[in-house]
Specification:
By secondary structure, the chain is mainly alpha-helical. The protein folds into 2 domains: 78 residues, no CATH class; 136 residues, no CATH class. Helix content is 48%, strand content 5%. Helix 1 packs across helix 4 and helix 2 crosses helix 3. The longest helix is centred in the N-terminal third of the chain and has 21 residues. It is elongated and about 70 Å long.
């Protein structure tokens, strides 16, 4: 009986093991500038070797994929828990100030978009070091008071909450969506406009050269692999130069 429970436990730890191996190779023998494909290849080789060793020692079996599926299901469920509505007072104040500065509500939406984009720029593959932010912490107040890495889907949800808090958009005019993905999903906001949808993709603003507010990168990826976009027309609005990010780096 003890051996059976040990196998179940090891089966449940297989997916976290891969995550830890990926993080180890991403930051110890390699660095942030190393192409992710190379890191994944090394991680996959070592991971396959460990699985073979565990199988030979009968510490995992044919039922292990079932426990791996349990892990993935749990991660997906935690990922989809929405951001809470605990937006702090200072965020409401800034949001109101920006809104009052613009008669055109889409200009307001663009400015608050770039403010958030500049706040949450982070180094590449930072998500490997902070998985708790992806799966556990769902507080708008927590992220508003911090800078650096914030998961892209939570950035998008925070942005949408600010737009709704301004009372210049209703629920149906600003919708949150999740795009197709290569190595991890990402969220974005679609703003209704009489002429065409305006896409607000914070991940793209932080990672894709040439991105402009109104466009979408539906399928992000590591180092441009399978990357398509930016798609769609930028929202030009008033004839003025868009604010640009001071620095760009990849985040999840």
């Amino acid at each position: 009986m003890a051996a059976r429970w040990l196998r179940i436990l090891i089966g449940l730890l297989i997916v976290p093991l891969f995550w830890c191996l990926f993080a180890f190779f991403a930051f110890v023998p390699f660095d942030r500038k190393t192409p992710a494909q190379r890191i994944l290849a090394v991680t996959g080789g070592v991971f396959t070797g460990l699985l073979f060793l565990l199988f030979r020692r009968r510490l995992i079996g044919l039922d292990s994929p079932l426990w791996m599926a349990v892990d993935v299901t749990l991660m997906a469920a935690l990922y989809t828990i929405p951001l809470r509505d605990d937006i702090p007072v200072e965020a409401f104040a800034l949001n109101k100030k920006i809104s009052e500065m613009h008669e055109d509500r889409y200009e307001y939406a663009r400015e608050i978009f770039y403010i958030l984009a500049r706040c949450f720029v982070s180094p590449t593959r930072e998500y490997l070091l902070q998985p708790h932010k992806i799966f556990v912490i769902k507080s708008a107040a927590y992220y508003w008071k911090r800078r650096g890495y914030v998961p892209s889907h939570l950035q998008a949800q925070l942005y949408r909450k600010l737009l709704l808090a301004s009372r210049r958009f209703c629920e149906t005019e600003v919708t949150y969506q999740t795009g197709r993905f290569y190595n991890s999903p990402h969220g974005y906001v679609v703003i209704s406009h009489p002429e065409r949808p305006i896409y607000a993709d914070l991940w793209a603003a932080q990672n894709v050269d040439g991105y402009q507010f109104g466009q979408l990168v539906e399928m992000p990826s590591c180092e441009g692999l399978s990357l398509k976009g930016p798609e769609g027309e930028p929202y030009l609005g008033e004839p003025r130069e868009d604010p640009r990010l001071s620095s760009r780096s990849r985040s999840g």
